[in-house]
Amino acid sequence: MLSIAGTDPTGGAGIQADLKSIAAFGGYGMAAVTALVAQNTLGVREVHVPPTAFLDAQLRAVSDDVEIDAVKIGMLGSAEVVATVDTWLAEVQPPIVVLDPVMIATSGDRLLDADAEQAVRALCRRAGLVTPNLPELAVLTDRPVATTWDDAIAQARTLAGRADTAVLVKGGHLDGDESPDAVVDTTGVHPVSGRRVATRHTHGTGCSLSSAMATLAAHGLAWHTALERAKGWLTGALENAEALHVGRGNGPIDHLHELRPHIDLGRSWSTERWDATTPTRAEVDACAFVTGLASGDLDRDAFHWYLGQDLLYLREYARVLARAAALAPNVDEQRFWAAASVSCLAEEAALHQAHVDPARLEPAASTLDYTDHLHAASTAGSYAVLVAAILPCFVLYTDIGARWRGTFAPDHPYADWLTAYGDETFAASSAEAAGIVDAAARTASASTRAAMAAAYDRSMVLELAFFEAPLRRI
Question: Is residue 77 annotated as part of the catalytic site, yes or no?
Fold first, then answer.
């Protein structure tokens, strides 16, 4: 896949966006630079156009050596650059050519002089697909900018007929909650519906979509089928754009959002935090309450006191889990946290209320410290930080229970409690919770991951204090 375009040093548009889009769909990306652009998410500062002889040298260096399956053309900038690319296309005749005619700036200013505009119109005949935005479509057809979908389709029909090519009509500049696109060619109009994503982070969407279309076509998809796949991907890329935290202006989309959950970094975030809290966990293992519970020698009054505090804790923990369900980014995670909240209340009824009188309970300082910490995480608004704070209660009890499993007799005085800790269903839930937290960490910013680590570590320390409290009555 060869991209012929300008650069964006912040990586959101131009060749950098093309290469990411190509990679997202399994293509091998190559690039020939038409212009060096000093820009960021706030705007363009300066453009340097190398001599066209050097562009020609780049193009021939690629085609003399590599079999090209598809070409995507972006920013050209001048009639001389267009002519250089046109000559090369005529000689090499790559099987797929997608032209994104970069002619109008976001501000509405025209980027090309009259000669260059005419050259781009002629270049459309070399392309199998042309992907203008609505202002560019208007320039290519000598019409006013379309303000309705029907006007845009009519202009695309005109361009498709004149240039004998397919045209991708993009409805993103139109008003309304919907953002339809369509492929218009000699066979008719092939629309693909879509919802509008409310985000300012749209930098490079045109570059990215055209590169995606070229790559999908190289895989053998027809233009309208490619659009269905590419549009779904682009919608997700826009929805995940905010999480990238790139720049202070019109930020880029997340080209690799579909791949990110599957990236194996060797060590998961949850594993790293587990290892980082080894000293605290060693103190948990060594504390008198835990060792006494395992041996059966734990003072019965201390255990009943613990049950009462755990009952109070679980009631608040269930509310925090419900809050996680409300903040969860997808249905599967919503269901998981909601089910965990219900399970929390069921455990409260099964293992606590038969032993303690809830009406006579008052939370100890250690209980309040822990529940206050969890509620603070739940009200801060960060889903990633909240689930990180929740996780220690899952993984610590799972770890203890797994090591206790099979070590006690049926007549052990605390057998029901040790059995609950070692429940394999709970262990599976714990693993799922860790996976959810890992996924949140992968898409979080560095500052959010730091906050996640602080919340997790604090919860682990408060777990230790909770275990120590029954013998100290604090």
Answer: no
